[in-house]
From TrEMBL:
Organism ancestry: Eukaryota, Viridiplantae, Chlorophyta, core chlorophytes, Chlorophyceae
Matches recorded under InterPro entries: PXL2A/B/C, Thioredoxin-like_sf
PANTHER family reported for this sequence: PTHR28630, THIOREDOXIN SUPERFAMILY PROTEIN
A GO cellular component annotation in the UniProt record: chloroplast
Organism: Chlamydomonas eustigma
Pfam families named among the record's database cross-references: AhpC-TSA_2 (PF13911)
Annotated protein name in UniProt: Thioredoxin domain-containing protein
């Protein structure tokens, strides 16, 4: 497996391929569209910087929640990582659902992210060129990053529900980190997807900075999935999609 540093010479070709794939991606309401859009795309493991294919990080019939976050330096993303590792991962472990996070950054910078959030490095993957984000057509505009009403509404909701503590803790001592490709990459938004093998059973694309999927809804979806799918004709799986 190649390291992040040794892979720079092939990034241009990979990015070009991802753009071609992205043009073929339809909004992921068909069962395998999201999976197929990221199939063949590589990310980097936080643990050792090795390059791996993202969809090969879960088995053909395995249930997995994949959270795409804006970047390693985003305070809202650090808040989400803190909550996922503390409140969500133990519950997912109990029911046999894997948790993965993909974020924009480098393996080197991920060490600081893990230290700040407690999110396990073994579950963290880096996409420094945001190729999986492009393939899923996650939002990436100035409007949604800075001027979408969903951001202040999501912050207000945190305070109204008494759930602002994690964000306040993150902001205490927080310093901005530059994204690998510079300031324009910081416009990228994230999202959450639940897969069972190749089948997408839930998706949420963040509408704006700080606007994350509802954790209780995700847990309800995770609990509703059968633990095994012996018939991988997979014709009768309920699918949930939350519109952008």
């Amino acid at each position: 497996m190649r390291s992040y540093q040794s892979s720079q010479r092939v990034l241009t070709n990979r990015v070009t391929k991802s753009v071609v794939r992205a043009t073929r991606v339809v909004k992921a309401h068909a069962s395998t569209d999201a999976y197929n859009s990221i199939k063949g795309l590589n990310v980097y493991r936080a643990t050792d910087g090795s390059e791996v294919e993202l969809v090969k990080q879960w088995e053909a019939d395995e249930r997995v929640l994949v959270a795409w976050t804006r970047s390693l330096g985003c305070p809202f993303c650090q808040e989400l990582a803190t909550q996922l590792q503390r409140d969500v991962k133990p519950k997912l472990d109990e029911i046999g659902v894997k948790l993965l996070m993909v974020s924009i950054g480098t393996p080197e910078r991920s060490k600081d992210f893990v230290a700040r959030t407690g999110f396990p490095a073994s579950n963290l993957y880096l996409d420094p060129e945001n190729i999986t984000y492009d393939a899923l057509q996650l939002k990436n505009t100035v409007q949604d990053t800075f001027f979408n009403v969903a951001t202040p509404l999501s912050i207000a909701k945190r305070f109204a529900e008494g759930k602002s503590g994690d964000l306040m803790d993150i902001l205490d001592g927080w310093q901005p980190w530059m994204t690998p490709k510079g300031p324009t990459q910081a416009l990228q938004q994230g999202g959450m997807y639940v897969f069972q093998g190749q089948r997408m059973v839930f998706s949420y694309q963040d509408k704006a900075t700080g606007d994350h999927a509802d954790i209780e809804q995700i847990m309800a979806v995770a609990r509703s999935m059968p633990p095994q799918r012996p018939d991988c004709g997979c014709e009768n799986v309920d699918e949930t999609e939350v519109a952008r």
